[in-house]
Please model this.
Amino acid sequence: MTSSPLSPHPDQPADASHQARTADASHPPAPPVDASHPAHLVHTAAALRDLPRGTGVRAVVMTMGALHEGHATLIRAARRRVGPAGQVVVTVFVNPLQFGAGEDLDRYPRTLDADVELAAAAGADVVFAPSVDEVYPGGEPQIRIAAGPMGALLEGASRPGHFDGVLTVVAKLLHLTAPDLAFYGQKDAQQLAVITRMAADLNFPVEIVGVPTVREDDGLALSSRNRYLSGPERCTALALSAALFAARDRLAAEEALRARAASVGHHPAPDRAAALAALGEDRAAADAHAVAYAAAGALHGPAVARAAALAVLDDAARLDPPLTLDYLALVDPSDFTEVPDAYEGEAILAVAAKVGSTRLIDNIRLVFGAGRPEATAAHQGGTTTDAVDTGDTGDTADTATSAAAASSPSAPSPSAPSVTSTPPATPPTTPQGPLGATR
Model:
């Protein structure tokens, strides 16, 4: 990707950076959508072209069906952004090109009637549900779009050819739907990144709007594949989000220790204990040791975050049923390469694992060096966060004791995110990025 998917607010003017826009979840929800008029269901590109487009802009939400609240959040965000004069198109297409050998193409849920109902209730004007022959006339295309080096990492390494299939169908659906805006969930962070890069490199005149991950009350990221999980498997699957939250909280604890070390200074041990006592600490000696450790630079954000997440995942591997880890990676959002231990700035902590026969993915966005002025400014400037997690860097711990407690793998259950209420959009004047198929 030319630039990070962690990017400015969707209300900012379009520019030539090709950055994925992100919905800000800090605004109150918009009024309920009037679903008295059902969405038009069309199956061909010709039928879609024949529908009146109106005077506003068109937004598209690309899905593979089996719609759930995560998809509804995308549709509502699109509805709010385009306003009453705009048009929201939801595509429902299970793309065979992005399934590898032995994957779940045949059993992938297909619930079109329910999908149309949910889409209409969330604010969609049109549901475009083409057949495989409509999208790929004459069979699988001989020419496909290659995802390049970024598409060979993580998900691409585990599922060879997956992102080539994603990019090929996204390009075709963008041509068929001709949107001005495209909305995509941040749960599939690598997919969002490769599609944004494709849009930048190939000059698609579409603006991406990234929408924060939607989670269940217990933290599990919403996915169409969650329905495959049995009760015990679902309990094990909670380790994915728990691992991410543990890394977030441990990072916050480390930053608190570093800030305290800076405030106490490099005094001899007795003076340090006295300084901590003056701050109101009850356990001055223990805290002095922890602060001295932080001041010496022994803690490193990326290494500590990885270790905290791995501890949770290692425990989950011993559950019944067990979690089988595919990867845990802390990556630079611009190219999805692993970040070094000295890294400062925004990063994505991504995890993929199997529980039973179901493969699940999740991610969280972290800021390393959050207490430093330059990192804080970047984090507050509209960059992406996982809205469910009320601040991925976590709250600053008040004491070294609470900092240690924050390294526990347990984390509070996140609340459901709100979706930005944004004013009607105008068509972008410069090429932006498109939106990919929602998994």
Q: What stands out?
A: The CA atoms of residues 287 and 401 lie 7 Å apart. The beta strands are 21-22, 40-42, 58-63, 87-92, 126-128, 181-185, 207-211, 323-331, 345-355, 358-368. Confidence is low (pLDDT under 50) at residues 1-19, 21-32, 371-439. The longest strand covers residues 345-355.
